[in-house]
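// run 5 | inverse folding | seed 20
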């Protein structure tokens, strides 16, 4: 604790790490005292902006700082496992960026290590904290839509590959393309709103059409092209998911494609008593949720008045709650692992060209027992 009784925090990674710094800046019970990243200039600039006294290139030096009690990990996906294990080993609670890991095997090690250490492992599913998603989840939980039988979740970009030739387009470093990067968010949003039904089978296809041609790079922004590095992941993934309760979901996700979508995500839920749609264009926070029902038998549309929210701020608030008050991590490492399990099954199905079963909580996609 600091002299103000605040938790002492370290942030690893200075790209998406900025969202964590903004979140901690809004949380009076915590103070970031160290940053780590390989890009010295970016880290120094953030340290100055957020008044962080210690900056390291090597994250193990940050973990060796005895006063740090918890860390945020916002580094490339292949580092989530080693950084989480090292942080837990050093006795720090962990908030890790999405996706939890590249594979179920990695995610299981992280969840198990946190359980054994008795430390918090939370995941930054920050889109859950959007006002539209939060409201919809509450509305569904109250039973307002009846039984949800069909869902659609999507995140589509016209030209949004986050750095052709960067770690994002390396299969080894990222674990996949838009499915593991963007799909994990909308899959989580939709399943969370539906009450986390168990997915029993998936059928999927993936494509890499624009990326290998060197097309589809994110226009502007912080992501740079590394010419000459091969493009190794999909640029579009489509999947059909079957739930144990009979509901189904269509998932669609793309970094780049000849489509009218600029950068748009959302979901639709169809229930026996009502429906809902979230459609977010270019990260809008208001005017994005519509609820469908009936007034005296006449079809009705309702658009709740939404507030803007800082998604990571809410996640960090709950992370601090878990550490200080012993509340269960929310969203938890286990939920992160569940989403990785589905992503792994989707990639497996696309590879095999057929539907695959998703086993129970310890499951992975089974090649040996295809459904069809
Ligand atoms: N939740 C969200 O909205 C959101 C948004 C963007 C990215 N992300 C996630 O955040 C993670 C990072 O993505 P990004 O866009 O910030 O990538 P990035 O490439 O912009 O930044 C990665 C950071 O990690 C640091 N890093 C890399 N290797 C390191 C090492 N060995 N030791 C210490 N630091 C190291 C880099 O120096 C850099 O600061 C990914 O898992 C990504 O999926 C989440």
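// decoded
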């Amino acid at each position: 604790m600091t002299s103000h009784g605040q938790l002492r925090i370290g942030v690893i990674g200075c790209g998406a790490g900025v969202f964590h710094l903004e979140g901690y800046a809004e949380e009076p019970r915590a103070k970031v005292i160290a940053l780590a990243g390989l890009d010295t200039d970016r880290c120094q600039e953030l340290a100055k902006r957020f008044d962080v006294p210690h900056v390291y290139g090597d994250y193990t030096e940050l973990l060796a700082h005895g006063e740090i009690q918890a860390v945020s990990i916002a580094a490339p996906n292949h580092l989530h496992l080693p950084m989480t294990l090292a942080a837990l080993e050093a006795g720090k609670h962990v908030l890790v960026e999405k996706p939890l890991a590249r594979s179920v095997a990695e995610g299981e090690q992280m969840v198990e290590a946190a359980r054994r250490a008795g430390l918090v492992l939370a995941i930054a599913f920050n889109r859950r904290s959007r006002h539209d998603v939060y409201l919809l989840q509450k509305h569904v939980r109250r039973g307002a839509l009846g039984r949800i039988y069909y869902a659609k979740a999507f995140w589509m970009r016209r030209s949004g590959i986050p750095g052709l030739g960067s770690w994002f387009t390396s299969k080894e470093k990222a674990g996949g393309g838009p499915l593991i990067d963007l799909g994990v968010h909308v899959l989580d949003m939709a399943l969370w709103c539906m009450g986390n039904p168990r997915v029993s089978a998936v059928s999927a296809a993936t494509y890499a059409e624009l990326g290998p041609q060197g097309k589809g790079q994110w226009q502007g922004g912080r992501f740079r092209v590394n010419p000459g590095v091969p493009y190794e992941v999909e640029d579009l993934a489509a999947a059909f998911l079957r739930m144990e309760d009979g509901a189904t979901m269509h998932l669609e996700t793309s970094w780049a494609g000849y489509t009218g979508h600029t950068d748009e995500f959302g979901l639709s839920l169809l229930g026996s008593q009502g429906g809902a749609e979230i459609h977010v264009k270019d990260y809008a926070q208001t005017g994005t949720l519509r609820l469908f029902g009936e007034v005296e038998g006449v079809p009705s549309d309702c658009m709740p008045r939404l507030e803007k929210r800082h998604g990571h701020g809410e996640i960090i608030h709950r992370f601090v709650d878990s550490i200080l008050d012993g509340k269960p991590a929310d969203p938890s490492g286990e939920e992160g692992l569940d989403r990785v399990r589905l992503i792994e099954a989707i990639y497996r199905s696309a590879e095999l060209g057929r539907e695959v079963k998703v086993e129970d909580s310890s499951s992975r996609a089974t090649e040996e027992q295809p459904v069809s």
